Amino acid sequence: MSKTNWILILLITVISCNEQNEFEYPLVFTGDVINITDTSATFTAKISNPGKYPILESGFIWGVHSNDNYGIKIRNEGIPDGVYALQTNYKLLPGKTYYVRAYVLTESTVTYGREVTFNSLEGQVELGKWSLIINDGFDNSGRFVSVESSFTINDTTYFATYGSLYCFSHISNTFSFVLANPILLHADISVVFNGYVYIFHYNAFYRFDPKSKSFNKLSVLNEDVARINGSGFLINDKIYIGLGEGSSKFWKYIITEDSWQQIASFPGSVRRNAFNFSINNVGYIGGGFNFHKFSTKSDFWCYNPENDQWIRKENLPIVNEDMFDLVGDNTENFGYCFYKNKLYEYNPVFNIWGKMADLNNNRNLGYPHLFAVKDKIYLMASKYDDNNRYFIMWVYEK
Amino acid sequence: MKNSILKIVTLIICIYSRSLDCEAQVIDNKVNIYAEYIIGIFHGKELIEEKNFIYPSLYNNLKDIDGISLKWLYKNHQHISLGINVILLQASNWEYTGHSEYHGSKIKMQSISPTIQFHSKFSETNIFNRGRVFIEIGPTVGLSKLTLSNPLFDIQNEKDAVSIPMKSNDIFYGLTGNVGLEWAITQLIGIYITYSLQFNWVTSKLYNDNQFTSSQLGIGIIMKFKKDKRYFY
Fold it and tell me: CB–CB of B74 and A42 under 8 A?
Protein backbone atom coordinates (compact mmCIF):
# COMPACT_ATOMS: atom_id res chain seq x y z
CA MET A 1 0.00 0.00 0.00
CA SER A 2 1.46 3.37 -0.95
CA LYS A 3 2.14 6.18 1.51
CA THR A 4 -0.64 8.26 -0.01
CA ASN A 5 -3.14 5.54 0.73
CA TRP A 6 -1.99 5.35 4.34
CA ILE A 7 -2.47 9.10 4.73
CA LEU A 8 -5.92 8.93 3.21
CA ILE A 9 -6.94 6.10 5.52
CA LEU A 10 -5.77 8.02 8.57
CA LEU A 11 -7.59 11.16 7.50
CA ILE A 12 -10.80 9.25 6.90
CA THR A 13 -10.42 7.61 10.31
CA VAL A 14 -10.10 10.96 12.06
CA ILE A 15 -13.03 12.47 10.23
CA SER A 16 -15.24 9.45 10.80
CA CYS A 17 -14.51 9.65 14.52
CA ASN A 18 -16.46 12.89 14.60
CA GLU A 19 -19.79 12.26 16.23
CA GLN A 20 -21.89 14.91 14.61
CA ASN A 21 -22.93 17.65 17.02
CA GLU A 22 -26.54 17.83 15.99
CA PHE A 23 -28.17 19.44 18.99
CA GLU A 24 -31.92 19.30 18.86
CA TYR A 25 -32.69 22.59 20.57
CA PRO A 26 -31.39 26.10 19.99
CA LEU A 27 -28.29 27.13 21.90
CA VAL A 28 -27.56 30.73 22.77
CA PHE A 29 -24.63 32.40 24.52
CA THR A 30 -25.09 35.56 26.56
CA GLY A 31 -22.21 37.89 25.85
CA ASP A 32 -20.82 40.56 28.12
CA VAL A 33 -22.86 43.72 28.70
CA ILE A 34 -21.39 46.74 26.94
CA ASN A 35 -21.96 50.50 26.74
CA ILE A 36 -23.23 50.86 30.32
CA THR A 37 -24.36 54.42 31.01
CA ASP A 38 -26.39 55.87 33.87
CA THR A 39 -29.61 55.08 32.01
CA SER A 40 -28.98 52.22 29.60
CA ALA A 41 -26.79 49.29 28.61
CA THR A 42 -26.35 47.05 25.58
CA PHE A 43 -26.78 43.29 25.80
CA THR A 44 -25.08 40.93 23.36
CA ALA A 45 -25.66 37.31 22.43
CA LYS A 46 -24.89 34.68 19.86
CA ILE A 47 -27.06 31.81 18.68
CA SER A 48 -24.60 29.01 18.06
CA ASN A 49 -27.14 26.37 17.13
CA PRO A 50 -30.59 27.07 15.64
CA GLY A 51 -31.87 23.58 16.51
CA LYS A 52 -34.40 21.50 14.64
CA TYR A 53 -37.49 23.49 15.48
CA PRO A 54 -38.53 26.92 14.21
CA ILE A 55 -37.41 29.77 16.45
CA LEU A 56 -40.45 31.82 17.43
CA GLU A 57 -38.75 34.52 19.43
CA SER A 58 -35.37 35.54 20.75
CA GLY A 59 -33.88 38.33 22.79
CA PHE A 60 -32.94 38.95 26.40
CA ILE A 61 -34.61 38.66 29.75
CA TRP A 62 -33.19 40.92 32.41
CA GLY A 63 -33.89 42.59 35.71
CA VAL A 64 -32.74 42.91 39.28
CA HIS A 65 -33.55 39.31 40.23
CA SER A 66 -31.33 36.37 39.39
CA ASN A 67 -32.75 33.63 37.13
CA ASP A 68 -36.07 35.41 36.88
CA ASN A 69 -38.07 33.86 34.04
CA TYR A 70 -40.63 36.64 34.44
CA GLY A 71 -38.13 39.46 34.15
CA ILE A 72 -38.12 42.20 31.54
CA LYS A 73 -38.03 40.93 27.98
CA ILE A 74 -36.43 42.60 24.99
CA ARG A 75 -37.31 40.86 21.77
CA ASN A 76 -35.49 40.82 18.47
CA GLU A 77 -37.44 41.97 15.48
CA GLY A 78 -37.23 38.90 13.30
CA ILE A 79 -34.89 35.99 13.79
CA PRO A 80 -31.24 36.98 14.07
CA ASP A 81 -28.50 35.09 12.34
CA GLY A 82 -25.77 34.45 14.88
CA VAL A 83 -24.74 37.50 16.88
CA TYR A 84 -27.30 40.04 18.05
CA ALA A 85 -27.24 43.05 20.37
CA LEU A 86 -30.11 45.00 21.94
CA GLN A 87 -30.27 48.03 24.17
CA THR A 88 -32.17 48.07 27.46
CA ASN A 89 -35.81 48.94 26.99
CA TYR A 90 -36.25 50.57 30.40
CA LYS A 91 -34.24 53.19 32.18
CA LEU A 92 -31.79 51.65 34.62
CA LEU A 93 -32.29 52.27 38.32
CA PRO A 94 -29.15 53.68 39.93
CA GLY A 95 -26.86 51.56 42.09
CA LYS A 96 -28.42 48.19 41.32
CA THR A 97 -27.03 44.84 40.22
CA TYR A 98 -28.73 43.54 37.10
CA TYR A 99 -28.95 40.02 35.72
CA VAL A 100 -29.19 39.31 31.99
CA ARG A 101 -29.80 36.13 30.03
CA ALA A 102 -30.19 35.67 26.30
CA TYR A 103 -33.08 33.43 25.35
CA VAL A 104 -34.46 31.63 22.34
CA LEU A 105 -38.02 30.39 22.25
CA THR A 106 -39.44 27.56 20.17
CA GLU A 107 -42.90 26.09 20.33
CA SER A 108 -41.96 23.66 23.08
CA THR A 109 -38.79 24.97 24.70
CA VAL A 110 -37.00 28.04 25.84
CA THR A 111 -33.21 28.09 25.97
CA TYR A 112 -31.42 30.53 28.25
CA GLY A 113 -27.75 31.38 27.97
CA ARG A 114 -25.54 31.91 30.99
CA GLU A 115 -26.53 34.72 33.33
CA VAL A 116 -24.40 37.84 33.10
CA THR A 117 -24.40 40.50 35.80
CA PHE A 118 -23.61 44.17 35.66
CA ASN A 119 -23.96 47.15 37.99
CA SER A 120 -25.63 50.40 37.09
CA LEU A 121 -23.91 53.61 38.02
CA GLU A 122 -24.64 55.19 41.37
CA GLY A 123 -27.17 58.01 41.37
CA GLN A 124 -29.70 59.94 43.38
CA VAL A 125 -33.00 58.23 44.20
CA GLU A 126 -36.02 60.52 44.36
CA LEU A 127 -37.71 59.72 47.69
CA GLY A 128 -40.52 62.24 47.47
CA LYS A 129 -42.06 64.15 50.37
CA TRP A 130 -45.17 64.22 52.56
CA SER A 131 -47.31 67.29 53.23
CA LEU A 132 -50.08 67.60 55.78
CA ILE A 133 -53.23 68.92 54.14
CA ILE A 134 -55.93 68.33 56.79
CA ASN A 135 -55.32 68.26 60.50
CA ASP A 136 -57.96 67.77 63.16
CA GLY A 137 -60.86 67.35 60.74
CA PHE A 138 -63.81 66.84 63.06
CA ASP A 139 -65.90 63.75 62.33
CA ASN A 140 -69.18 65.06 63.64
CA SER A 141 -71.18 62.14 62.31
CA GLY A 142 -69.12 59.69 64.28
CA ARG A 143 -69.33 57.27 61.37
CA PHE A 144 -66.24 58.28 59.56
CA VAL A 145 -64.24 55.66 61.35
CA SER A 146 -62.93 53.29 58.76
CA VAL A 147 -62.80 53.77 55.02
CA GLU A 148 -63.45 50.48 53.27
CA SER A 149 -62.83 51.68 49.76
CA SER A 150 -62.58 54.91 47.84
CA PHE A 151 -62.91 56.08 44.27
CA THR A 152 -62.18 59.31 42.50
CA ILE A 153 -64.23 61.03 39.84
CA ASN A 154 -62.77 64.19 38.38
CA ASP A 155 -61.56 66.25 41.36
CA THR A 156 -63.61 64.50 43.98
CA THR A 157 -62.72 61.40 45.95
CA TYR A 158 -65.53 59.40 47.52
CA PHE A 159 -65.11 57.26 50.62
CA ALA A 160 -67.32 54.30 51.39
CA THR A 161 -67.46 53.79 55.13
CA TYR A 162 -69.79 51.68 57.26
CA GLY A 163 -72.94 52.37 55.28
CA SER A 164 -72.10 55.96 54.37
CA LEU A 165 -70.52 57.81 51.49
CA TYR A 166 -68.41 60.90 52.01
CA CYS A 167 -66.63 62.99 49.47
CA PHE A 168 -63.52 65.11 49.48
CA SER A 169 -62.97 67.97 47.07
CA HIS A 170 -59.36 68.28 45.96
CA ILE A 171 -60.06 71.83 44.90
CA SER A 172 -61.44 73.19 48.16
CA ASN A 173 -59.83 70.56 50.42
CA THR A 174 -63.20 70.03 52.14
CA PHE A 175 -65.17 66.95 53.16
CA SER A 176 -68.89 66.49 52.94
CA PHE A 177 -71.44 63.79 53.62
CA VAL A 178 -73.08 62.39 50.48
CA LEU A 179 -75.54 59.68 51.47
CA ALA A 180 -76.16 56.62 53.60
CA ASN A 181 -77.07 53.26 52.14
CA PRO A 182 -76.78 49.68 53.44
CA ILE A 183 -75.07 48.72 50.18
CA LEU A 184 -72.06 50.64 51.44
CA LEU A 185 -71.64 48.22 54.30
CA HIS A 186 -68.64 46.05 53.44
CA ALA A 187 -68.06 47.96 50.23
CA ASP A 188 -64.55 46.57 49.97
CA ILE A 189 -64.20 46.91 46.24
CA SER A 190 -65.19 49.94 44.22
CA VAL A 191 -63.99 50.91 40.76
CA VAL A 192 -64.86 53.60 38.26
CA PHE A 193 -65.70 52.69 34.68
CA ASN A 194 -67.18 55.05 32.10
CA GLY A 195 -68.30 57.56 34.74
CA TYR A 196 -70.11 54.98 36.85
CA VAL A 197 -68.94 53.42 40.06
CA TYR A 198 -69.13 49.65 40.56
CA ILE A 199 -69.35 48.74 44.23
CA PHE A 200 -69.28 45.12 45.30
CA HIS A 201 -71.53 44.16 48.18
CA TYR A 202 -71.75 40.54 49.41
CA ASN A 203 -72.45 38.79 46.12
CA ALA A 204 -73.12 41.40 43.45
CA PHE A 205 -71.92 44.64 41.99
CA TYR A 206 -74.05 47.74 42.34
CA ARG A 207 -73.69 50.44 39.78
CA PHE A 208 -73.65 53.85 41.41
CA ASP A 209 -74.49 56.91 39.37
CA PRO A 210 -72.74 59.89 40.99
CA LYS A 211 -75.07 62.34 39.30
CA SER A 212 -78.37 60.85 40.38
CA LYS A 213 -76.81 59.23 43.45
CA SER A 214 -78.71 56.03 42.70
CA PHE A 215 -77.70 52.38 42.98
CA ASN A 216 -78.55 49.71 40.45
CA LYS A 217 -77.98 46.05 41.29
CA LEU A 218 -76.21 44.01 38.64
CA SER A 219 -76.06 40.26 38.03
CA VAL A 220 -75.39 38.14 41.08
CA LEU A 221 -72.26 36.07 41.57
CA ASN A 222 -73.45 32.49 41.99
CA GLU A 223 -71.43 31.46 44.96
CA ASP A 224 -72.35 29.96 48.28
CA VAL A 225 -70.12 32.28 50.22
CA ALA A 226 -70.77 35.97 50.52
CA ARG A 227 -67.56 37.83 49.80
CA ILE A 228 -66.58 40.07 52.63
CA ASN A 229 -63.26 41.83 52.91
CA GLY A 230 -62.28 40.53 49.49
CA SER A 231 -59.92 42.06 46.95
CA GLY A 232 -60.38 43.21 43.40
CA PHE A 233 -59.06 45.33 40.58
CA LEU A 234 -60.21 46.73 37.26
CA ILE A 235 -58.51 45.83 33.99
CA ASN A 236 -60.11 47.26 30.87
CA ASP A 237 -63.84 46.47 31.11
CA LYS A 238 -63.45 43.65 33.60
CA ILE A 239 -63.39 43.64 37.36
CA TYR A 240 -61.52 40.81 38.99
CA ILE A 241 -62.54 39.93 42.53
CA GLY A 242 -61.79 37.18 44.98
CA LEU A 243 -60.36 36.21 48.34
CA GLY A 244 -62.06 37.43 51.48
CA GLU A 245 -62.49 35.12 54.40
CA GLY A 246 -62.61 31.46 53.49
CA SER A 247 -62.10 31.34 49.73
CA SER A 248 -59.24 31.47 47.26
CA LYS A 249 -61.55 31.54 44.24
CA PHE A 250 -61.34 34.45 41.85
CA TRP A 251 -63.92 35.75 39.46
CA LYS A 252 -64.10 38.07 36.52
CA TYR A 253 -67.05 40.40 36.14
CA ILE A 254 -67.44 41.64 32.57
CA ILE A 255 -69.01 45.06 32.88
CA THR A 256 -70.11 45.37 29.30
CA GLU A 257 -71.87 41.99 29.41
CA ASP A 258 -73.02 42.08 33.04
CA SER A 259 -71.76 38.53 33.44
CA TRP A 260 -69.45 36.52 35.66
CA GLN A 261 -66.69 34.03 34.80
CA GLN A 262 -64.44 32.10 37.14
CA ILE A 263 -60.72 32.52 36.59
CA ALA A 264 -57.62 30.81 38.02
CA SER A 265 -57.81 30.61 41.78
CA PHE A 266 -55.42 32.61 43.89
CA PRO A 267 -52.44 30.30 44.54
CA GLY A 268 -51.40 31.91 47.81
CA SER A 269 -53.01 31.29 51.14
CA VAL A 270 -56.53 32.51 51.84
CA ARG A 271 -56.74 35.97 53.35
CA ARG A 272 -58.91 38.99 53.85
CA ASN A 273 -58.28 42.71 53.53
CA ALA A 274 -55.41 42.25 51.10
CA PHE A 275 -54.56 45.46 49.29
CA ASN A 276 -54.91 45.44 45.54
CA PHE A 277 -54.34 47.54 42.47
CA SER A 278 -53.73 47.19 38.75
CA ILE A 279 -50.96 48.67 36.64
CA ASN A 280 -50.63 48.31 32.87
CA ASN A 281 -53.33 45.64 32.62
CA VAL A 282 -51.85 43.47 35.35
CA GLY A 283 -53.56 43.05 38.72
CA TYR A 284 -51.69 42.92 42.03
CA ILE A 285 -52.62 41.51 45.44
CA GLY A 286 -50.51 41.91 48.57
CA GLY A 287 -50.64 41.60 52.32
CA GLY A 288 -53.86 40.76 54.11
CA PHE A 289 -54.45 38.49 57.06
CA ASN A 290 -56.13 35.27 58.04
CA PHE A 291 -58.66 36.09 60.69
CA HIS A 292 -58.96 32.54 62.06
CA LYS A 293 -55.25 31.87 62.25
CA PHE A 294 -54.58 35.46 63.24
CA SER A 295 -51.66 35.59 60.85
CA THR A 296 -50.67 38.38 58.49
CA LYS A 297 -49.25 37.94 55.01
CA SER A 298 -46.23 39.55 53.42
CA ASP A 299 -46.41 37.87 50.02
CA PHE A 300 -47.26 39.75 46.86
CA TRP A 301 -48.81 38.40 43.69
CA CYS A 302 -49.76 39.52 40.24
CA TYR A 303 -52.45 38.27 37.88
CA ASN A 304 -52.08 38.47 34.13
CA PRO A 305 -55.43 38.18 32.33
CA GLU A 306 -53.70 37.41 29.03
CA ASN A 307 -52.71 33.95 30.19
CA ASP A 308 -54.98 33.63 33.25
CA GLN A 309 -51.89 33.15 35.40
CA TRP A 310 -50.90 34.17 38.91
CA ILE A 311 -47.21 34.83 39.51
CA ARG A 312 -45.59 35.45 42.84
CA LYS A 313 -43.65 38.70 42.93
CA GLU A 314 -41.16 40.15 45.35
CA ASN A 315 -42.39 39.96 48.93
CA LEU A 316 -43.47 43.06 50.74
CA PRO A 317 -40.53 44.75 52.41
CA ILE A 318 -42.15 44.48 55.83
CA VAL A 319 -41.35 41.49 57.99
CA ASN A 320 -42.07 40.43 61.55
CA GLU A 321 -44.84 42.95 61.97
CA ASP A 322 -48.54 42.46 62.60
CA MET A 323 -49.39 44.41 59.43
CA PHE A 324 -53.10 44.73 60.14
CA ASP A 325 -52.91 48.37 59.13
CA LEU A 326 -51.13 47.70 55.85
CA VAL A 327 -52.77 49.64 53.02
CA GLY A 328 -51.94 50.16 49.38
CA ASP A 329 -52.87 51.77 46.11
CA ASN A 330 -51.23 52.77 42.85
CA THR A 331 -50.47 55.63 40.53
CA GLU A 332 -50.25 55.06 36.80
CA ASN A 333 -46.82 53.42 36.91
CA PHE A 334 -46.11 52.49 40.52
CA GLY A 335 -47.74 50.66 43.37
CA TYR A 336 -47.51 51.83 46.96
CA CYS A 337 -48.04 50.33 50.35
CA PHE A 338 -48.01 52.13 53.66
CA TYR A 339 -47.41 50.75 57.11
CA LYS A 340 -46.64 52.61 60.33
CA ASN A 341 -45.29 55.83 58.81
CA LYS A 342 -43.30 53.99 56.16
CA LEU A 343 -44.14 54.19 52.49
CA TYR A 344 -42.86 51.64 50.00
CA GLU A 345 -43.00 52.02 46.25
CA TYR A 346 -43.41 49.02 43.97
CA ASN A 347 -41.83 49.22 40.55
CA PRO A 348 -43.72 46.66 38.41
CA VAL A 349 -41.17 46.80 35.61
CA PHE A 350 -38.31 45.66 37.81
CA ASN A 351 -40.49 43.85 40.36
CA ILE A 352 -38.83 45.66 43.23
CA TRP A 353 -39.97 47.48 46.34
CA GLY A 354 -38.16 50.65 47.37
CA LYS A 355 -38.49 52.63 50.55
CA MET A 356 -39.70 56.18 50.04
CA ALA A 357 -39.79 59.16 52.40
CA ASP A 358 -41.14 58.37 55.86
CA LEU A 359 -44.23 60.14 57.12
CA ASN A 360 -43.25 62.53 59.87
CA ASN A 361 -45.90 61.62 62.40
CA ASN A 362 -45.76 60.72 66.06
CA ARG A 363 -49.44 59.93 66.64
CA ASN A 364 -51.14 56.57 66.53
CA LEU A 365 -53.04 56.44 63.29
CA GLY A 366 -56.37 54.65 63.33
CA TYR A 367 -57.70 52.89 60.24
CA PRO A 368 -55.30 54.38 57.71
CA HIS A 369 -56.54 54.51 54.14
CA LEU A 370 -54.26 55.07 51.15
CA PHE A 371 -55.57 56.32 47.85
CA ALA A 372 -54.02 57.75 44.72
CA VAL A 373 -55.19 60.59 42.54
CA LYS A 374 -53.11 60.99 39.42
CA ASP A 375 -49.47 61.09 40.61
CA LYS A 376 -50.25 61.89 44.22
CA ILE A 377 -50.71 59.49 47.09
CA TYR A 378 -53.06 60.44 49.91
CA LEU A 379 -53.15 58.99 53.36
CA MET A 380 -56.18 59.46 55.52
CA ALA A 381 -56.48 58.22 59.09
CA SER A 382 -58.55 58.86 62.18
CA LYS A 383 -57.54 59.76 65.68
CA TYR A 384 -59.22 60.27 69.03
CA ASP A 385 -58.70 63.27 71.23
CA ASP A 386 -60.75 63.80 74.40
CA ASN A 387 -63.36 61.29 73.22
CA ASN A 388 -63.84 63.21 70.03
CA ARG A 389 -63.06 61.61 66.67
CA TYR A 390 -60.96 63.46 64.16
CA PHE A 391 -59.42 62.61 60.86
CA ILE A 392 -56.16 63.71 59.37
CA MET A 393 -54.82 63.65 55.81
CA TRP A 394 -51.42 63.88 54.14
CA VAL A 395 -50.37 63.93 50.54
CA TYR A 396 -47.22 62.36 49.16
CA GLU A 397 -45.66 63.40 45.90
CA LYS A 398 -42.35 63.14 44.07
CA MET B 1 3.07 14.73 34.29
CA LYS B 2 6.13 14.47 36.55
CA ASN B 3 5.81 10.71 36.55
CA SER B 4 5.74 10.62 32.80
CA ILE B 5 8.84 12.73 32.50
CA LEU B 6 10.59 10.56 35.08
CA LYS B 7 9.74 7.40 33.15
CA ILE B 8 11.02 8.84 29.90
CA VAL B 9 14.27 10.05 31.47
CA THR B 10 14.78 6.65 33.13
CA LEU B 11 14.18 4.92 29.82
CA ILE B 12 16.66 7.18 28.05
CA ILE B 13 19.32 6.58 30.72
CA CYS B 14 18.84 2.80 30.50
CA ILE B 15 19.10 2.83 26.75
CA TYR B 16 22.12 5.09 26.87
CA SER B 17 23.90 2.94 29.47
CA ARG B 18 23.32 -0.15 27.32
CA SER B 19 24.85 1.58 24.37
CA LEU B 20 28.06 2.73 25.99
CA ASP B 21 30.02 -0.11 24.47
CA CYS B 22 28.71 0.51 20.97
CA GLU B 23 30.74 1.69 18.08
CA ALA B 24 31.40 5.39 17.82
CA GLN B 25 30.10 5.74 14.31
CA VAL B 26 26.44 5.23 13.47
CA ILE B 27 25.06 4.24 10.15
CA ASP B 28 22.52 6.38 8.40
CA ASN B 29 19.02 5.02 8.12
CA LYS B 30 15.85 5.60 6.12
CA VAL B 31 12.99 5.19 8.57
CA ASN B 32 12.64 6.86 11.93
CA ILE B 33 9.83 6.46 14.43
CA TYR B 34 9.55 9.18 17.05
CA ALA B 35 7.66 8.84 20.32
CA GLU B 36 7.34 12.02 22.34
CA TYR B 37 5.87 13.43 25.52
CA ILE B 38 4.52 16.95 25.13
CA ILE B 39 3.61 19.83 27.39
CA GLY B 40 2.30 23.11 26.08
CA ILE B 41 0.28 26.25 26.39
CA PHE B 42 -2.34 28.06 24.35
CA HIS B 43 -1.66 31.57 23.13
CA GLY B 44 -4.20 34.25 22.34
CA LYS B 45 -6.79 36.61 23.76
CA GLU B 46 -8.75 35.51 26.79
CA LEU B 47 -11.92 37.05 25.40
CA ILE B 48 -13.51 36.32 22.05
CA GLU B 49 -14.86 39.40 20.30
CA GLU B 50 -17.20 38.98 17.37
CA LYS B 51 -18.92 42.22 16.32
CA ASN B 52 -20.35 43.40 19.68
CA PHE B 53 -20.41 39.94 21.17
CA ILE B 54 -17.82 39.30 23.88
CA TYR B 55 -17.35 35.91 25.50
CA PRO B 56 -14.51 34.13 27.33
CA SER B 57 -12.33 31.97 25.12
CA LEU B 58 -12.29 28.26 25.80
CA TYR B 59 -8.87 27.29 24.49
CA ASN B 60 -6.94 30.39 25.49
CA ASN B 61 -7.97 30.08 29.13
CA LEU B 62 -7.00 26.41 29.44
CA LYS B 63 -3.84 26.48 31.46
CA ASP B 64 -2.58 22.90 31.15
CA ILE B 65 -1.82 20.90 28.02
CA ASP B 66 0.01 17.63 27.87
CA GLY B 67 0.02 14.57 25.71
CA ILE B 68 2.02 12.34 23.42
CA SER B 69 2.84 12.13 19.75
CA LEU B 70 3.98 9.36 17.48
CA LYS B 71 5.73 10.24 14.24
CA TRP B 72 6.88 8.10 11.34
CA LEU B 73 9.36 9.60 8.87
CA TYR B 74 10.92 8.21 5.73
CA LYS B 75 14.12 9.78 4.48
CA ASN B 76 13.98 10.13 0.76
CA HIS B 77 16.63 12.80 0.33
CA GLN B 78 19.78 13.64 2.24
CA HIS B 79 18.03 16.76 3.65
CA ILE B 80 14.39 15.76 3.49
CA SER B 81 12.18 13.22 5.18
CA LEU B 82 8.49 12.72 4.72
CA GLY B 83 6.05 11.13 7.07
CA ILE B 84 3.10 11.44 9.32
CA ASN B 85 2.63 12.64 12.88
CA VAL B 86 -0.18 11.59 15.18
CA ILE B 87 -0.69 13.76 18.28
CA LEU B 88 -2.87 13.10 21.30
CA LEU B 89 -3.28 16.01 23.70
CA GLN B 90 -5.47 16.85 26.62
CA ALA B 91 -6.12 20.32 28.00
CA SER B 92 -7.68 21.29 31.30
CA ASN B 93 -7.64 23.81 34.17
CA TRP B 94 -9.78 26.52 32.62
CA GLU B 95 -9.44 29.82 34.43
CA TYR B 96 -10.68 33.29 33.69
CA THR B 97 -11.22 35.93 36.35
CA GLY B 98 -14.84 36.46 37.24
CA HIS B 99 -16.12 33.65 35.04
CA SER B 100 -16.85 29.99 35.61
CA GLU B 101 -18.32 28.84 32.30
CA TYR B 102 -15.75 26.18 31.54
CA HIS B 103 -14.40 25.50 35.03
CA GLY B 104 -13.53 21.83 35.31
CA SER B 105 -14.08 21.20 31.60
CA LYS B 106 -11.60 19.13 29.62
CA ILE B 107 -10.59 18.82 26.02
CA LYS B 108 -8.99 15.83 24.35
CA MET B 109 -7.46 16.51 20.97
CA GLN B 110 -6.45 13.94 18.41
CA SER B 111 -4.73 15.16 15.31
CA ILE B 112 -2.82 13.87 12.37
CA SER B 113 -0.31 15.80 10.37
CA PRO B 114 1.43 14.80 7.14
CA THR B 115 4.91 16.14 7.79
CA ILE B 116 7.86 17.21 5.75
CA GLN B 117 11.12 17.42 7.64
CA PHE B 118 14.12 19.40 6.52
CA HIS B 119 17.17 18.22 8.41
CA SER B 120 20.91 18.48 8.49
CA LYS B 121 22.84 16.14 6.23
CA PHE B 122 24.10 12.87 7.71
CA SER B 123 27.85 12.80 8.10
CA GLU B 124 30.05 9.77 8.66
CA THR B 125 32.54 11.52 10.90
CA ASN B 126 31.62 14.70 12.74
CA ILE B 127 28.86 15.74 15.11
CA PHE B 128 26.27 15.23 12.41
CA ASN B 129 27.04 11.55 12.44
CA ARG B 130 24.99 11.29 15.64
CA GLY B 131 23.27 14.63 15.77
CA ARG B 132 20.65 16.17 13.58
CA VAL B 133 18.94 19.53 13.48
CA PHE B 134 15.53 19.63 11.86
CA ILE B 135 12.60 21.78 10.96
CA GLU B 136 9.21 20.29 10.18
CA ILE B 137 6.06 21.65 8.76
CA GLY B 138 2.77 20.11 7.85
CA PRO B 139 -0.95 20.60 7.66
CA THR B 140 -2.97 19.28 10.57
CA VAL B 141 -6.44 17.88 10.85
CA GLY B 142 -7.87 16.71 14.13
CA LEU B 143 -10.73 16.19 16.46
CA SER B 144 -11.28 18.22 19.61
CA LYS B 145 -13.48 16.47 22.16
CA LEU B 146 -14.86 18.84 24.77
CA THR B 147 -16.47 17.57 27.96
CA LEU B 148 -18.17 20.25 30.03
CA SER B 149 -18.37 20.02 33.78
CA ASN B 150 -21.22 22.53 34.10
CA PRO B 151 -24.07 23.13 31.68
CA LEU B 152 -23.70 26.29 29.62
CA PHE B 153 -27.40 26.54 28.86
CA ASP B 154 -30.69 26.15 30.61
CA ILE B 155 -33.22 24.51 28.32
CA GLN B 156 -36.73 24.38 29.72
CA ASN B 157 -39.50 22.28 28.29
CA GLU B 158 -43.00 22.29 29.71
CA LYS B 159 -43.55 18.59 29.07
CA ASP B 160 -40.34 16.61 28.96
CA ALA B 161 -36.94 16.81 30.55
CA VAL B 162 -34.39 18.08 28.08
CA SER B 163 -30.82 16.83 28.04
CA ILE B 164 -28.44 19.75 28.11
CA PRO B 165 -25.45 19.47 25.72
CA MET B 166 -22.36 18.57 27.72
CA LYS B 167 -20.07 17.22 25.00
CA SER B 168 -18.93 18.44 21.66
CA ASN B 169 -16.68 16.82 19.09
CA ASP B 170 -15.28 19.36 16.69
CA ILE B 171 -12.92 19.03 13.79
CA PHE B 172 -10.03 21.45 13.65
CA TYR B 173 -7.49 21.98 10.94
CA GLY B 174 -4.40 24.11 10.55
CA LEU B 175 -0.65 24.08 10.34
CA THR B 176 2.05 22.67 12.57
CA GLY B 177 5.69 23.68 12.61
CA ASN B 178 8.43 22.01 14.64
CA VAL B 179 12.09 22.68 15.25
CA GLY B 180 14.24 20.18 17.07
CA LEU B 181 17.44 18.40 17.82
CA GLU B 182 18.01 14.69 17.84
CA TRP B 183 20.91 12.58 18.99
CA ALA B 184 21.61 8.97 18.12
CA ILE B 185 22.61 6.95 21.14
CA THR B 186 22.98 3.63 19.39
CA GLN B 187 22.46 2.38 15.90
CA LEU B 188 18.82 1.79 16.85
CA ILE B 189 17.90 4.39 19.43
CA GLY B 190 18.13 8.12 19.75
CA ILE B 191 16.62 10.94 21.75
CA TYR B 192 15.27 14.28 20.67
CA ILE B 193 13.64 17.49 21.82
CA THR B 194 11.26 19.68 19.83
CA TYR B 195 9.49 22.95 20.02
CA SER B 196 6.18 23.03 18.11
CA LEU B 197 3.87 25.79 17.11
CA GLN B 198 0.35 24.93 16.01
CA PHE B 199 -2.23 27.17 14.50
CA ASN B 200 -5.70 25.75 13.95
CA TRP B 201 -9.16 26.80 12.91
CA VAL B 202 -12.15 25.31 14.67
CA THR B 203 -15.88 25.90 15.05
CA SER B 204 -18.17 24.58 17.73
CA LYS B 205 -21.65 25.04 19.11
CA LEU B 206 -20.43 24.93 22.71
CA TYR B 207 -17.78 27.62 22.53
CA ASN B 208 -17.01 30.66 20.49
CA ASP B 209 -13.36 30.23 19.57
CA ASN B 210 -12.80 30.18 15.83
CA GLN B 211 -9.10 29.47 16.06
CA PHE B 212 -6.43 28.59 18.56
CA THR B 213 -2.68 28.69 18.71
CA SER B 214 -0.55 26.54 20.94
CA SER B 215 3.13 25.99 21.47
CA GLN B 216 4.49 22.76 22.82
CA LEU B 217 7.73 21.44 24.14
CA GLY B 218 8.45 17.79 23.58
CA ILE B 219 11.01 15.24 24.55
CA GLY B 220 11.17 11.72 23.19
CA ILE B 221 12.98 8.78 21.76
CA ILE B 222 13.71 7.75 18.20
CA MET B 223 13.75 4.26 16.85
CA LYS B 224 15.84 3.95 13.74
CA PHE B 225 15.04 1.38 11.10
CA LYS B 226 16.08 0.46 7.59
CA LYS B 227 19.81 1.14 7.72
CA ASP B 228 21.20 2.80 4.70
CA LYS B 229 24.01 0.29 4.28
CA ARG B 230 26.30 0.17 1.27
CA TYR B 231 28.51 -2.84 0.73
CA PHE B 232 31.78 -2.65 -1.17
CA TYR B 233 32.93 -5.96 -2.57
Answer: no
